[in-house]
Amino acid sequence: MKVETSVCAPLSGIRAAGELGLSRGEFARAVQLGLVRPGPRSAGGAVRFSRAELDRVRAGEGFPRELRARIETTAGADAGARVLEVGPSRFTRLARCGHLTPVGYRINRYRAVVWLYLAAELREFAVREPGLLSGAAPPEDRELMAAGADLRPRRWRERHVGLLLRRTADPWSRAAVLASVLPEEEVRAAVPDPAERIVLAALAPPPPYGHPRVPAAEAVARRLLLAEPPEEVRGYRAGLDSALAGARGQSNSTGERGPT
User: By its UniProt entry, which Pfam families does this protein fall under (predicted)?
Assistant: First the structure.
């Protein structure tokens, strides 16, 4: 009986990654993209993974080759340009103008942001938009570049928030995701009740995998987590207001504040 319990017990992320033959970074990316689904958290709050989920992933067609192909990333303009077979300056322009969406980031030793892209998405883009890989930039891109626009942080936040929202149906947890990308003054305006703000803070998602811990680099990366353009802030604020309405309705029906 004890052996059976051990075999069926949920696994830690490190153990689950090992059983799938993935590095820690590869496994984190697979979880981020929803390709490996986490189970309920342990009593201590750690994410756990069921053996049934690992079996499902292993049973996928072409495992592990296909899984690795879906989570393969390129870092920076030089590597991304090689995938698209264009020059680094064109790649940077395509990314800054919002044609390419980063999947992650890291901060280098010079405290500069190095954006990560899914290699598979870059290859799909090359097939889908061959006209953007050569010739003059379209008028919209020229306007954006003349204005000094850089849509990479915003596009990354859209993806990050969307992936987090897909992983939960609980209205308080969804509200916490949306609050996590808003400036503090916006959260206070939307959530005047300090007790509700405590709930949202407790449910806030952790920084994404690869977020630096060194203070100087962390300060750079922290700015990427918060919405900045006014129209982006308004969009997340509207989403937070909607999520809070559902969360408060849930609390009124159950008599409890927080996820049920």
Answer: DUF6397 (PF19934)
